[in-house]
Design a protein that fits this description.
homodimer, alpha/beta, 434 Repressor (Amino-terminal Domain), Rossmann fold, 3 domains, four-stranded parallel β-sheet, 12 strands, 45% helix, DNA-binding
DNA sequence: CATATTGTTGTAAGCGCTTACAATAGATTT
DNA sequence: AAATCTATTGTAAGCGCTTACAACAATATG
């Protein structure tokens, strides 16, 4: 390995000090040029920039991070990237962060809040400049950790009024309620729900709550047996449908906690020979790209995933820069009525 | 802000030095315990660990990065996360990296290789311990950058034999060829292709090449007008279908570069009143979860996205640890024959 | 023209760890 | 028991930047 050692020696990286020497200025000046600090004369800047070009200097991020106490990256804690609605948000978040010259560290936790807390610890240890979380369901220790470090953070996706968690998101309950009201208005009286597991998932809880509110207000509350909770997935949705079909009094409409479950439900319904929506109405939540291409196209709620990513990026960067931003920002999540819902069958 | 200043003063973070003092050992010993270095007596370890617990010490990642020259994170360059096949890979990559106590920095580049190069520069500057890239289509400068820094890296998704780019992936050409052969065997003679743009995308090129090879070998080469290149998306697939239907001699089978395009093609075909596969056969590539739930279920190629993520994580970590791993690892991408393909119509 | 003010640059002290090397203690050999 | 070797621990010099502060120059003010 001698050759390798020699190489390593010859490969002396150019340091900021070398640039300073080359430009015949102090290291502080080079650093100021690099960081676009004020009070730098044009002459000096040009000399430094020329030296940087000549030497092909690239600053060392780790040294900069240690000295400046900012790493140039934020951390995002998301349940999973295996769900396109989250990956769409992360995609737009990352793209927008790039504009602010900020990188993105990702950590997933599979809806396990203890894992989330652990991942948060790791991110903080790495020195991230800010943190993005999904929803308001977190271990209390997570909040303590963020507050004690005075670390900028923002939640997203869910935005109920919560003094602890500043956030950018949308109301999950109201659109769910409207979806149910839409079905009730179409004459449905036996509603059923296929929901994602609600543990550690306030979005799922809020949607379920919205369904419940509407059902109760209309005088036809949801009995437990007509609320099925299943994991994320098309197959899971299909299974949920089958279990609902095993009931004595079958529902005439099924409200699903997300589009993917709705796809599964719809496929299973059609496989069972049911006409959608003539014999059974189905709703989703998310408005994934496929939703409008299903047959029939899915009635759902359009979740502004891309917009959330962008606004969270802007908002968190502002907070990192010490700018106070609104504690809560509510985006629109409009109902998208398509053809998977129709009048209740008259039996 | 006086109260704040006071707080900041009182909030003196615990440093490694404080732990050393508390445990009455040297800072080097604390560091050794922290890093599970060899030659640490049990007694010392226990004392240090007790002190760490007592003080609630959390090491500073940036200082550790500067001193040790590893940051505890790798960078992944992917075209986009808006495509579920990539986000599935990233999801499994991140989860597997966690096991190795390694974080993930994400950067997307929208298939723009100049953007990719720029993003690579930024990641290197951040000090990532390794880099994952997709495919072998990159600016030459990217390779130079990686080599000069002697930075461990691995490509994925595509794995042709290439001395420059070590990689873990699958053969994109052969399954594409097999798909086309499958159609030819079913009697189809007028094949068409709906491909993703091939610029900076060797996977798309390889698949197209596979389709071509089979078509030519069977004596019915693909004329240019029967090769449509469109951006990623269901709507884009649908549009491609319509442009193909404008041809004099319509194809009896359409090979799509990915499942999403195939969904679009299939929907447009059905909307146009065509029976799939009786009047037209359609194939995809990826085997997204929905593929088997389409009606009819989509014939496609199962891309091992999750397995790629895991193997890339293990492989890159090994390289970072100085372990030599195979230059190239080929995974299986099996054909999944379903009902969207059938005998050519006899007209 | 002396003085205050503002703008520009340099000096040098960290930032909080890791690790080469030195020192010491303990075990083993002869 | 002296000599040798090995396992353990400590000392201190960085890692490559940023930034508080000082110094000085240029400009404005009275």
């Amino acid at each position: 390995m001698e050759a390798r050692d020699v190489m390593n020696k010859e490969m002396q990286r150019t340091l900021l000090e070398d640039v300073a020497r080359e430009a015949e200025v102090s290291t502080a000046s080079v650093s100021r040029v690099l960081n676009r600090a004020p009070h730098v004369s044009k002459r000096l800047r040009e000399r430094v920039e020329a030296a940087i070009d000549r030497l092909g200097y690239v600053p060392d991020g780790t040294a900069r991070a240690l000295a400046s106490r900012r790493i140039g990256a934020i951390g995002a804690l998301v349940p999973t990237l295996d769900n396109p609605i989250f990956s769409a948000m992360i995609d737009s978040l990352e793209r927008r962060l790039k504009r602010h010259d900020c990188r993105l560290l990702i950590a997933t936790y599979r809806y396990d809040l203890d894992d989330e807390l652990q991942a948060l610890r790791t991110l903080i240890q790495q020195g991230v400049d800010g943190v993005v979380l999904v929803g308001h369901d977190h271990r209390p220790a997570a909040l303590t950790l963020l507050q004690r470090r005075q670390l900028p953070f923002l939640t997203c996706w869910h935005a109920e009024d919560d003094p602890d968690w500043p956030g950018i998101g949308f109301d999950n309950t109201a659109p769910a309620r409207h979806l149910a009201e839409h079905l009730l208005m179409l004459g449905h009286r036996r509603l059923a729900v296929v929901s994602a597991p609600t543990d550690g998932n306030d979005r799922a809880r809020a949607r379920l709550e919205g369904f419940r509110q509407a059902a109760e207000a209309a005088g036809c509350p949801l009995p437990p047996e007509r609320i099925v909770k299943v994991d994320y997935g098309i197959a899971e949705g299909a299974e949920a449908f089958e279990s609902l079909m095993g009931l004595d009094r079958r529902p005439t409409a099924i409200l699903c906690g997300n589009d993917t479950l709705a796809f599964g439900v719809m496929l299973a319904a059609q496989r069972a020979g049911l006409q959608v929506p003539r014999e059974i109405s189905i709703t989703g939540f998310d408005d994934l790209p496929q939703a409008r291409f299903m047959s029939p196209p899915l009635t759902t709620v359009a979740v502004p995933a891309g917009e959330i990513g962008r606004q969270v990026a802007d908002g968190l960067i502002a907070r990192i820069d010490g700018v106070t931003t609104p504690h809560r920002r509510l985006l629109d999540a409009p109902l998208v009525l398509r053809e998977s819902t129709g009048p209740a069958p008259t039996d």
